[in-house]
Amino acid sequence: MSGPDGQPPTGGTGPGHEAPAALPEPGREGPAGSAEPRRARRGRVFGGLRARLVVAFVLVALVSAVTATALAYRESRTAVLQRKQDAVQDDFRTRVEQAAVGFDIPPDEVSLTEFASGIADGLGKDAVVVAQYRSLTVSSDTGADRSRITPALRGAVRDENRMSFQRVERRGVPYLVVGTPVTFDSGTPSGLDVFAIASLRAERDDTAGMVDAVRDGLAPVVLLAAVLALFAARTVLRPVRELGRATRKHAAGDLSSRVRVRGNDELARLAGDFNDTADALERSVGELRDQEARAKRFVADVSHELRTPLAAMAMVTTVLDEEAERLPPDAARAARTVSEETARLTRLVDDLMEMSRFDSGAARLRRADTDLAEAVRATLSLRGWTDRVRTALPDGVRASVDRRRIDVIVANLVGNALRHGADPVTVTLTADPAADLITVEVTDHGPGLPPETLARVFDRFYKADTARARSEGSGLGTAIALENARLHGGTIDAADRPGGGAAFTLRLPWRHPSEEDR
Q1: Which of 198, 204, 221, 225 is nearest to 73 (CA)?
Q2: N or C, which end of the chain has less CB nearby within 10 Å?
Q3: 266, burial (CB in 10 Å: exposed 0-12, middle 13-18, buried 19+)
Q4: Taking the model in full, what pTM does it have?
């Protein structure tokens, strides 16, 4: 074509630039956005180590697969779009340069329409070409949607005087819009701008098919990862389970349990350390048990050997007591002191013998049908405590118990209350048929028990007042009472009363006389 200066115009060949695209950015599509949080939440639900290992293994495999797929998808999508973009721009530039040769400026509507149609014929059946010369605008397809050419792209072509492109989306379909100005040979704008609109539907479908293929392939990947995780978890957890079983056996008292050592890894070293620790523990416990057994035998043997000389001493002190009134005062006082100390030593030996029977398991119950109220009254009467102790003993409470041992329990609890508490001392008997429980409570109105005494009141040889080294008690009374209660299947609790004083409560299962001894 001929311009005003007689020079033919040529298509612009300046480098194109891309305006903000309407299509999603590469790498922002696909299943990666929701799979990881959902599976992470599921992983937190499971509490077992095996389940957590499997979930962690699957998550790592899934995240790795999704990340690699997303990166590959982004690169592939970018390459497909870039190839399409370059092809459309090259074809469009070539067609515009060919059609511009011999085209007259200014054009009329007919010539401008032929110009646009000629360019469109070489760009493919779906391409639409729009030509604009000042206020005159025509297109190769009269029904084409010209709104796909954005004002931003028109301004870029007009102001920068070079080829520009932009990706837009209309009604869910992506398009590539390329625009170029037609210039004279001198580079002077001719006022004619040409735009080509090419569909990117095929490229979008190709990339979408890639995403679908990846999504379909995730299930086998996850399944394979789960199978591998189960195999790995089984390999890792086998020594852990063996350690658990051995630990439980140790807790149950079987110190001979050991773990088989496999390989030379960290778990194998842990198993070896466990076995070494178990060996040392078994040796230590064995030595302690031997020492305890020797100590118990020693106490039993000493107590047994002391009984014969103590019996002889008791006979002598009896004679001294009878003759004390006829002796001089100093000799009488010495005789009574020897008698009291011999009696205390006799009680101590008897208590030690009783404890040795509990420790050796030789203590046995001799159950008999017993009226518990009558048994408690007999205990108080035998020791002269009837006038000093208040009682609440309902009649008719009968049970199968060892009466001698019940006497020992009540005597120890009441004796402690009278010695260390304050009047009034009360003994209360209650029976709960619904719970099959019998309760004997001994209370006093003294100062109560300090916290450190409550924690140790049933310990052997424990005395609340450590300064009273010559107290009447041996420190074994409450321990013997508790052992007798346990022999009946019951227990004894100690506590401070809210209103002041101490309360010792004996609880026994109500074994009725009709029940057979087991």
Answers
A1: 204
A2: C
A3: exposed
A4: 0.46
